Each structure stands twice: as C-alpha cells, then as structure tokens.
Sequence to fold (206 residues):
Amino acid sequence: MNIKKKKQHQLKILTVSDVIDKELTRKLEEKTLESVDLIISCGDLAPEYLSFLRDRLDAPLYYVKGNHDIRYTWENPIGCENIHERVVSFGSLNILGLEGSIWYNGGPNQYPDAIMKKMIFWMWFSIWRKGPIHMVVTHAPPRHIHDREDRCHMGFESFNSLIKKQSPDYFVHGHIHQEFETPADRITKVHTTQVINTCGYTILEV
Fold:
C-alpha cells in the first residue's frame, strides 16, 4: 500500500505497527519490495521482527514502543534506534517520537494524558533546536482521530495540541487495529497534517 505526497527530495519510508502483514512478508520473501530509505515502527511488534526488517531491507530503523512491548531491552532490537522523547533528523526530515498508550490498567508504556503533555513540554528545547517538525511518530493516536471509546484505545488530547502548535506534515501512529481497503482510508487530514494509521504497514514517499 502506498501513500504519496510529492516533494522536491523524496524519501521512501516503510512504516509498520501492531501486526505482521502477510502482504509485506510475501514481498520480503520474494524480494519484490522496492528499496526503502528508512523504516519506522509505531509499536507492538516483537523486537526480533524489527531486527529482521532492519537486516533484510538494509535500512536504518527508528521505533517507539507500544503498550504491549514488554520484551524490549537496551540491547534489542539489534541495529534499531529508540526515538521516544527525542527529535531525530534523517536527512532534512525532523522526526519526533513518543511511545505508549493512554493509562488504563497500570501496565508498561502507559501514561495519563497529563504526563504525556509534560513529556512534550520537556522536549521544547529539542524541538526549538532542530527546527520545524516534519513527522511525529507515536503508538497511540490523537484523541477523537482514529481512536476508540474504550479506555485502552482512547487517544491523547495532548497530541491534538502538538499537531496544532507544530503543524507536522505527517502524524504516524498504530495501536488501532483496522483493515483498510485503500491507502486513503488510513488518512485523516487535520489542517495541513496527515494523520496516518499504519496498522500493518504503509509506504510513505515524503
């Protein structure tokens, strides 16, 4: 599945989350997936799978953890980079990462919205120093955009404020399991930001 937004210097980015997509697996096994510049995981995938993607595609991999990612350590996934509470630059693309879901039962990688708001506030210097944020990578969605009404799958209201203040081109998340008939079904436009549910996988050309 491809989501395209033409710009002067295009990067091809594979984004994955939550479930191992059979179509992506087939393309990897048959070596029919076109080369990508970067891989991004939005959480709830085994660390071994991320290392597999990193090795098979020979591309850098950035990730944030989901609420079910309890097996990650400082040593794994091998060859991959955790970008939680960080702003990283890939070429001229500035990417902000935030892990986890809304707090619902006290498990790992769960945060009350007030804590997530503080995390974003504490990042202000990194955001200012790096310049404009082009892409936000999270596990959970913003509140009332792609989320659900059960406590576990509610989004963060603080993400809406982040979109309003920073106007990233892309806000890529997982957490909400859903099948999509077309790539466009994954996208909700919020002002100038494309909010994209990458459950399974997507390929962005940015």
About this structure: The chain has five helices and 14 strands. The mean pLDDT is 95.
